[in-house]
Structures are given as C-alpha cells and as structure tokens.
Amino acid sequence: MQEKKESDDFRTRFHECDAKFNTIFDLTSVASKIIRSDLTILKVNKALCELLSYLPEEIEGTKILDHACEEYIAHWHRLQEELWSKKVPHFKLQACLYRKDRSIVWVDVTTILYNDQGETFGFTVLDDISGLKKHEESEKRLNVALKYSDTAVWELNLETNEVFRSPDHDQIFGYGQRQDYWTLESYYPHITEQDLPGFKAAIQHIEVEGGIDVQVRLLRADGILQWLNMKGKTETNEDGKTVKLIGVINDITKDKIAERHKDDFISIASHELKTPVTSLKASLQLLERSTEPHSGRNKLLVSQANKGINRISLIIDDLLNAGKNYREQLEFRKTTFNLYELAKEICDQFASSETQTVTLTGDKELIIHADSERIGRVLTNLISNAVKYAPGSAEIKVELQDEAAFVKVSVTDKGPGISKEKMPLLFDRYYQADNQQIQYSGLGLGLFICANIIRKHDGEIGVDSEPGKGSTFWFTLPKSILN
Description:
alpha+beta, Beta-Lactamase, Helix Hairpins, five-stranded antiparallel beta sheet, 14 helices
C-alpha cells in the first residue's frame, strides 16, 4: 500500500510539474519551440506563432528546415550534429527564418537538450534580432557610402576631448590601421601650421557658433598633403549644457585641385583678353576724339561702345583678382550719380521680346555716391541671371527703394524659384544654380563678385525665393556712404 501511495504521489507531482511547464511555455513572451532529433517541430508557444505569423497547427509537425532561409540551412544541420551526434548539452546560432508571408525575421537561437521517457528533445528559444540586423545593415551601407565618398564621421566629447569616429576616419589621416585612441589633440600634428590656429579658434567658438565648419590643409601620416572640410553641430544634455559635437570630415582635395585649375584658366584667359580689349579701347577713344564729321547716331554708338569696353575691362580686372581675397583687392572710383539713370541705361540693354519685358520703377531723382561702374555691373548680373534662369517669366521687375537708412535695389522674376537649402550657397565662389537639373554655362563667379562689391560698399545682398513662385535678388547701400 505504501509503495502504491508513493507512486501515485509521484505521478501527481509529475503531472503538476508538466502542467506548470506547459503553462509557462505557452505564456512566456519569448518565442519557444520543442524539436526532435530530426528537427521536427513538436510544440510551439503563442510568442513563436506571433513571430512567424502561423497558427500552432500550421507549424507543429513541420521541420524547422521548412522555414529556414536557404543560406542558413547548413547552420541548422550543424545544430543537429552538435546536439544529437556529439551530445553537446546546448548550442547557439544566428539565423533567418521565413514568416508565413515569406518576409524574413532574424533570430538568435539557443537550444538546450533534455530527456523525456528515454528520448532526447531540444528546447529552443528564439530571440528576435531583426531590428539589430537592420541597424547593422544600415551601418554597413553607411560605412561603404562614407568610404567611397571620402567622408568620415566624428563625434567630439567636449568634456574629455575624446573623439569617437567611423571606421575609415583614420585612413583619411593616412593611417593603414585604426589607431587605439583619438582625441582632439590628435588632429593638431596633422594640420598644417598655417591652418592650425584657425582650427583651434573654431573649436573655441563651438558653443557660440553652435558648431564648426572649417577647411584645413592636412599633412597625413604617410606624407601626402590634402585638404579637409571639418564640420559638425553641437548637442546639449538635459540641462542645456553643450556636451558634444557630431559631424563629418570630407576630403575636398579634388575640389581644391579643380578650383586651382579653374583659377589658372581664368588668369590665363583674362590676360589673353586684356591685350586686344586694350587695343580696341584705344581705337574707340581715337574715333571719339576724331575731328572728322560724324552723324549723331554714330557718336551715340561710339559712346555706348566705349562704355561697354570700360565694363569689359573692369570684368577682366575682376576675373584676374577673383581669388579668396577679392574683396580686399577691390579698389573703387566713387562718384555721385543718378541711380535711376544708371538702372534705366542697363535695363535698356535687355531689349524686350515678345515673351519677356524688363520694367523699372522707383525714384527718378535718387542720387548716390558709389562706384557707378561696379554697381552697374551688379545690377547687370542680377538682370542677366533673371533672364537666363527664368525664361518663362513674362516680366522682370527692377525696383529702386529709398528707405530711411539705405537704398534698396531688387530684381524680381516669376521663374521656377530656388530651394531653401541652395540659397546660402548662391554667393559662394564657383557655385552655379540650376533650373530643374538643366545646367547653364558660366564660371559661377557672377554672384560671388556681386556680393563682394556690395559688401565692400558696406551694403548687404541676398535673395528671397520660393520654389514655383519666383525669386527676388536684392542689394542695399547704406545712406552713410551716399552723402
């Protein structure tokens, strides 16, 4: 009797344990399954059904290989060999499985062996790592993109000066292998003496400026000289304190070489143009001073030709000096003149066509004191750009405004407009805008030269634009220089 009672108690406890196991197995939030030595799926829980989008009866009785991605089938065979042939108590692998809709889910698989009534089964837990895999793939794509675009990512801890960086960062600085440690001071030996003070100053003003954008020449570890553009934006902590800088480092050596070649071409071409233009100018001056009788029309044409030659000579001088220090090299010949008359003379040069007209409004007695040739050149460039970049604009409006503290000149068109991200670049050296990806000829110096002329006059220049609604280019001259 005692033995029978103990046997009954054992069965009761066994069934209770089995029931508890099944309850835990079914209710756990971790995807789980029980497999046989031939990899047949005997039992699955609710979490695994949700992971693979199957009902229990649709997946129980199938083999795990039926759901495995083809390239990972060998991994499951290895699990089978390690656990049931080599008797390893547990085994881990990483694999991808197909859901019912054939989409892919990545899982970390852990399988533990256990014995039940003389047969060995595998209890398997599957941890969904699809999000991690997507992150790894995104990071891999980013690193490839950075590598082939000569770009590296850097993150500067402003408290410790430690730099966290992307895998190709050190290669940009000429190292064949990744360095163990990198700090802000690690950059100093590589930046040339001419550019190091500017880099340090930019770092010191990070909090005020909200970031950094500086170009430096670099002496790499392998002795190669190259140009880098180091830029980034600051980030703050919960207390609003600036704690780090995150940005990119671009290798701009090719751009600098192309810029130098362009400078050389402009310099040579300008010098070559200067001699024939000087000869032509002298011939026109002789013709103008000639005592032989000329008709009024001929005199007018000679006078206009002289003005045109003077403008061309000024353009050639500007091209010869269109370097980074262009503004400092500018020399003005200021006179007092009627701005409206100058603007009318320039507008008249753009003969109205059937589809496009140039109109002028404003104070006809607006007298200013400035370099008339160069102010005329700025206005000519702005109108010329409007004609070129907004061919569909029926009217181009030139407006002169006499404000309290300044005079404002604006040129408005109803063309395609300019996107917000491109507007800050328009006045950069060699930058050329485009109209719906259509490239126009030119050197990209027009607005750069215009900006320097106006700023040297202590004025401002800018643009207001919205894609699809046209653009207004404008400049101002302060009243303080007009008297």
